[in-house]
């Protein structure tokens, strides 16, 4: 019995996968596609994480889809509202009927003679496997492992008498009311957890090795809400998006061009939100410039309010070891706690961790170069979705999906079956694909694809540049090789050795 064949196989039913499905079926109503989701629900990150206070750190007018207005009064929204938005989007467009749950892609093998992928899929509930074939793969599974968060080694961890919880694996029913909670970490998750838990805990301590930039932002966008009331959600939506995109880009450019001024502005804002005499430079003055790592947001200044109220505090130090009662710091101080939360980050994982082969040769991702931020050198008929790290993730995902559909239309118009990008200069200088200082990226930077030194091999983090590249410039160029004859299509397999 032959394997089921699809035109496009989308991997992942989260924010990116649902968006990709909408773009695909809108442009090509009769193309056969399916979404494979390893978990048993759609929503990706927003269904996986269950820790207190989980929310977006970008406004939903840009973090949401361009084709579906965000209608809630809160623009910095909680996970339950985001998940409801995703479920509604999938149901409204019939995308939910295309999702195959508990289906994990283990491996994918490209055959040039057949011009198709053979995909091995494991049922996560039974352990059985099946084989599908597809003309295209669209990898929309995000960039981190869903089954495992990152926790560094802590000496003496086994000595601690209380529960130690990672936010990615939050314990249902964990009771922290009236208790002392220690949150280890300094990123967006820690900044979210501390004020949320401080509302009912006895006290919450944020322990960080290095400060991060934290900026208070309104949870409600007053201008956007007024525009929606005046014009209606549909007409106001594109105007609100333009306004918020302009704001994001202006802040990014300010931080890039004038990092010292940006640092002074953020410090001044922090100082106005914290108690008089608070050691701002000790706890909120990072050693790096703004946007070398992602800025953390505090909706309505909730973290600063918790510190002012005395329900939360910040300690900047290194852990020497766990003790029975908490953690011992290098300074000699011991922080006692009933519960420890290790908000220590993610495990980055490219293309869902699946094994790729092209004509029998394993693909080494570290030897590939990203083409327009959507394909990989030497790998035919494969697209992937990684959004912005310096603004709303979905802004770039939408553009990547548009380009993907433009590429399919280009292939159809010329009778092509395959598309594979190859640098004209095999010795082109490269640098990391994610030019980003976060620890979770630095840990695996040598395992990820690279980016080149010139277009179309540069991975842009500028929305307006990407609008030009992905929406307006011609689909094809001299470094994208399209072919009607599968056997004639170059794959550059030597790059993947």
Helix content: 25-40%
Give the full name of the CATH homologous superfamily of the largest domain. Answer: FAD/NAD(P)-binding domain
Structural class: alpha/beta
Do you know the CATH architecture of the largest domain?
A: 3-Layer(bba) Sandwich
- Provide the residue-averaged pLDDT: 93
What share of residues are in beta strands? 15-25%
CATH class bucket of the largest domain: Alpha Beta
Terminal Cα separation, in Å?
A: 34 Å
Structure description:
The protein is of the alpha/beta class. It folds into 2 domains: about 5-145 and about 345-495, FAD/NAD(P)-binding domain (3-Layer(bba) Sandwich); about 150-345, FAD/NAD(P)-binding domain (3-Layer(bba) Sandwich). The chain is built from 13 helices and 27 strands. The strands form 8 sheets. Strands 1, 2, 3, 4, 5, 6, 19, 20 and 23 form a 9-stranded mixed beta sheet that branches. The two termini are about 35 Å apart. It comes from Streptomyces dysideae. One of its GO terms (molecular function) is N,N-dimethylaniline monooxygenase activity. This is FAD-containing monooxygenase EthA. Its cofactor is FAD.
């Amino acid at each position: 019995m032959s394997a089921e064949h699809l035109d496009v196989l989308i991997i992942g039913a989260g924010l990116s996968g649902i968006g990709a499905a909408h773009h695909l079926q809108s442009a090509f109503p009769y193309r056969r596609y399916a979404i494979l989701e390893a978990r048993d629900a759609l929503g990706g990150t927003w269904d996986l994480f269950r820790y207190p206070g989980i929310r977006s750190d970008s406004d939903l007018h840009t973090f949401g889809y361009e084709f579906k207005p965000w209608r809630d009064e809160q623009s910095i929204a909680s996970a339950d509202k985001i998940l409801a938005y995703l479920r509604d989007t999938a149901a409204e467009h019939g995308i939910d009927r295309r999702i195959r749950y508990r289906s994990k892609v283990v491996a994918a093998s490209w055959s040039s003679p057949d011009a198709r992928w053979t995909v091995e899929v494991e049922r996560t509930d039974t352990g059985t496997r099946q084989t599908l074939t597809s003309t295209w793969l669209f990898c929309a599974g995000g960039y981190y492992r869903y089954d495992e968060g990152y926790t560094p080694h802590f000496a003496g961890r086994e000595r601690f008498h209380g529960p130690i919880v990672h936010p990615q694996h939050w314990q249902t029913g964990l009771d922290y009311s009236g208790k002392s909670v220690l949150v280890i970490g300094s990123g967006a998750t820690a900044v979210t957890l501390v004020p949320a838990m401080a509302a009912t805990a006895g006290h919450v301590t944020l322990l960080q090795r290095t400060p991060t930039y934290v900026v208070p932002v309104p949870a409600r966008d007053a201008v956007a809400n007024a525009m929606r009331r005046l014009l209606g959600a549909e007409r106001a939506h594109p105007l609100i998006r333009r306004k918020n995109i302009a704001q994001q880009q202006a802040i990014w450019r300010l931080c890039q061009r004038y990092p010292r001024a940006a640092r002074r502005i953020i410090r001044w804002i922090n100082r106005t939100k914290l108690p008089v005499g608070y050691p701002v430079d000790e706890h909120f003055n990072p050693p790096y410039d703004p946007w070398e790592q992602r800025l953390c947001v505090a909706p309505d200044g909730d973290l600063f309010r918790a510190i002012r109220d005395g329900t939360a505090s910040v300690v900047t130090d290194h852990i020497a070891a766990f003790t029975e009662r908490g953690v011992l710091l290098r300074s000699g101080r011991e922080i006692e706690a009933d519960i420890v939360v290790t908000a220590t980050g993610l495990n980055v994982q490219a293309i869902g961790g699946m094994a790729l082969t092209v004509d029998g040769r394993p693909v080494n991702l570290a030897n590939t170069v990203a083409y327009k931020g959507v394909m990989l050198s030497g790998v035919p008929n494969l697209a992937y979705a990684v959004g912005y790290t310096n603004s709303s993730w979905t802004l770039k995902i939408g553009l990547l999906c548009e380009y993907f559909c433009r590429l399919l239309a280009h292939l159809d118009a010329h009778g092509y079956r395959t598309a594979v990008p190859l640098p004209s200069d095999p010795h082109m200088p490269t640098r990391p694909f994610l030019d980003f200082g976060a620890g979770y990226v630095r840990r695996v930077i040598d395992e990820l694809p690279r980016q080149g030194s010139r277009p179309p091999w540069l991975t842009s983090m500028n929305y307006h540049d990407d609008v030009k590249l992905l929406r307006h410039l011609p689909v094809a160029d001299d470094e994208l090789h399209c072919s009607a004859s599968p056997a004639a299509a170059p794959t550059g397999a030597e790059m993947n050795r």
